């Protein structure tokens, strides 16, 4: 069996890459260890940069996104019992869109299958060779080999691609907290996202639709989810979002509940021989800046361009520049995500002095147009080179 590009992982990075390559007449096979239902329902990201929505629309998979995505022009920072709006569009001329990762994955799977694409679910890659290029995978009780010209490692943080890169340099930071995220069948209590910094810890109010809310709470890193029955979650959210003006949090049935550790991680370089890492396989950001999925999308746009040039002209110039081109963007997003995270969360080890500095910085971002513009241009996303 042979294809031009073997793609390991059928998350947003792998599926979008396969779609972009198909538009350029390049064959690929996507190997995904989980089943279709699992990848289409894994609750994760929700906030898309304008560059991400533009890329989906321009490549012909934006129809439902345009119908159901919720375009946002601002966000709220809430602290000291009051809200402070950051007018993202007013400051940058750009917008962001709430459209869940689950829906992007569904749209991409449907489109690839409609175009005759080859996605193999329940096909777990167990070995790969970046020089001979080939991948070995297990599925349906059999072990098979797929030969290819290039391998795209789009298999997320726990995949097999990154460990196959020799001499990798890694950079990481673990945070002394995690996020407890819930999905609730209730009308959102806000039109724009609320990022709340409170002495009890950080909280985020996001949404999925006019009838579904998505909320997050800062919790200790090793927290047991059993310690958080629904009533406790709602009480804690209400306490952290409380304002002096009678704002009310709508409560409803919790339909999904999970704890996510917070981590910053970068692996360099993102290439070894004919293997290219993309998305969470190469880097992780804490979700506070809403950058992870957007970085996965910009990586595969850069990779698809480079592979297109290679097949059209034989030149490997863009492939040779792939890792550096991605890493410049990755490190900017790493800094922004780290900055948003440390600005808004309560570090249990922080001194009173550090808490005062944090509050001074929040006041500054809320009152200085220059500081707010810096937050806004990073949040809406910098242009893809
Ligand atoms: P994924 O989505 O992890 O997909 C990797 C796929 O590879 C498969 N796989 C394998 N397949 C075959 N063989 C193997 N050996 C394999 N090993 C693994 C896995 O089953 C999986 O299907 O990585 P990808 O495609 O790089 O996409 C990255 C995004 O999923 C991630 O960055 C975002 O979800 C991060 N994120 C957010 N990003 C944003 O841009 N905006 C947000 O608002 C946002 N919010 C979030 C988030 C992530 C969160 N969690 C749960 C980590 C909120 C949360 C709570
Ligand atoms: C989400 O809607 O899941 C979401 C939004 C913004 C973030 C993180 C997650 O920063």
From TrEMBL:
Residues 2-337 form the FAD-binding domain. The keyword Oxidoreductase applies. This is 4-hydroxybenzoate 3-monooxygenase. Signal peptide: none annotated. Keywords: FAD, Flavoprotein, Monooxygenase, Oxidoreductase. Pfam families: FAD_binding_3. InterPro entries: FAD-bd (IPR002938), FAD/NAD-bd_sf (IPR036188), RIFMO-like (IPR050641). GO terms for molecular function: FAD binding; oxidoreductase activity, acting on paired donors, with incorporation or reduction of molecular oxygen, NAD(P)H as one donor, and incorporation of one atom of oxygen. It comes from Actinomadura soli. PANTHER family: P-HYDROXYBENZOATE HYDROXYLASE, TRK SYSTEM POTASSIUM UPTAKE PROTEIN. It comes from the Bacteria.
């Amino acid at each position: 069996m042979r294809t031009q590009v073997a793609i390991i992982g059928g998350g947003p990075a792998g599926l979008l890459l396969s779609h972009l390559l198909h538009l350029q007449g390049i064959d690929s096979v996507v190997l995904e260890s989980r089943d279709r239902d699992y990848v289409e329902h894994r609750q994760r990201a929700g906030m898309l940069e304008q560059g991400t929505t533009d890329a989906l629309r321009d490549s012909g998979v934006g129809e439902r996104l345009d119908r159901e995505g919720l375009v946002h022009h601002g966000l709220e920072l809430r602290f000291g019992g009051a809200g402070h709006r950051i007018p993202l569009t007013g400051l940058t001329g750009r917008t962001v869109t709430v459209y869940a990762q689950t829906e992007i994955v569904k749209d991409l799977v449907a489109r690839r299958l409609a175009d005759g694409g080859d996605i193999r679910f329940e096909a777990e890659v167990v070995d790969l060779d970046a020089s001979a290029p080939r991948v070995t995978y297990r599925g349906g009780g059999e072990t098979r080999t797929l030969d290819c010209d290039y391998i795209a490692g789009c298999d997320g943080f726990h995949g097999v691609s990154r460990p196959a890169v020799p001499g990798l340099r890694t950079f990481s930071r673990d945070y002394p907290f995690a996020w407890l995220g819930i999905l609730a069948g209730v009308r959102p209590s806000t039109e724009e996202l609320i990022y709340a910094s409170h002495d009890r810890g950080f909280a985020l109010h996001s949404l999925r639709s006019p009838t579904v809310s998505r909320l997050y709470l800062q919790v200790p890193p090793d927290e047991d989810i059993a310690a958080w029955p629904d009533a406790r979650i709602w009480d804690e959210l209400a306490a952290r979002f409380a304002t002096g003006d009678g704002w009310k949090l709508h409560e409803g049935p919790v339909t999904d509940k999970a704890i996510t550790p917070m981590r910053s991680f970068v692996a360099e370089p993102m290439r070894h021989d004919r293997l290219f890492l993309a998305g969470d396989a190469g880097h992780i950001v804490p979700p506070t800046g809403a950058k992870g999925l957007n970085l996965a999308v910009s990586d595969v746009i850069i990779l698809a361009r480079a592979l297109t040039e290679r097949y059209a002209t034989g030149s490997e110039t863009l492939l040779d520049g792939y890792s550096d081109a991605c890493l410049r963007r990755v490190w900017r997003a790493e800094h922004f995500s780290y900055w948003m995270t440390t600005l808004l969360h309560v570090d249990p080890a922080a001194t009173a002095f550090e808490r005062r500095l944090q509050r001074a910085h929040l006041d500054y971002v809320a009152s200085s147009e220059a500081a707010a513009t810096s937050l806004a241009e990073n949040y809406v996303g910098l242009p893809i080179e």
